[in-house]
Design a protein that fits this description.
153 residues; alpha+beta; 5-stranded antiparallel beta sheet; 3 helices; 24% helix; 23% strand; globular
Amino acid sequence: MPDGSKFDGKDLLTLVRSGKSPFDGAWDANLLIQEIEQNLHARVVDILTINTGANFYGFHLKMSNAKDIVARLAMADLNMPNYAAFKPEEVTIFVCFEAAVYKLLLSEPKILASSLLYHRVPVQHDGVKVQPPQDISGRALFLFERSTAFSLK
């Protein structure tokens, strides 16, 4: 948390909207919420759970249209100072491949897969890199309609 305390996982949406995000100093969670709302044409009304994997943050969100959404936001940001992992072109290929696989899985009725609603490849900006980056465009993003067959817990 910005005050140094440990985040207890509760009231994330309220914290973010009041400027007290536990991600402050790493990335702007308001930008994630705005991007989700703009692309899904509904408001985020609650953030139910957050998970951290090896490469992505996972968010279970409740939307104003009653949909449950799972958002996966990459931890790696192409716009971080000293970013030295995969080249932007390689990341684009990985993200596009992953999106294609999700769409392909939906065509197979025996495979339970969540519907991919939106994805974005990260963009590396020219110029001076600052910590934290000015936006979250350097991180891959996937938005899924949450399947009732899955649980993030």
